[in-house]
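User: What would this chain look like folded?
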Amino acid sequence: MGFRLSGVVQAKKVLKRSLSGSRQASSLDVPKGYFAVYVGESQKRFVVPVAYLNQPAFQALLNQAEEEFGFDNPNGGLTMPCSEDAFNELMTSQV
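Assistant: Here's the prediction, encoded as structure tokens.
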């Protein structure tokens, strides 16, 4: 079983750059070992475990977020390019 360290390192870079946005203050109420993402048109906030950064499906979504929104998102934070339903489905499949 292989482990893609480069994917984890890239995902951590995405997360670090996304937290430098204007929503950084709201990230203070996120428990240790978790991070916040904003999903869907309504920008609903989800708090997800950092362990998800190891999951290939989540890494693919992060790469898509980078391509679609870049790291200078005016909303700040990490915005995921999918619907809330699709994100919930991804999260439940990661458990």
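Residues 21 and 74 are 8 Å apart (CA to CA). If you want, I can go into more detail on any region.
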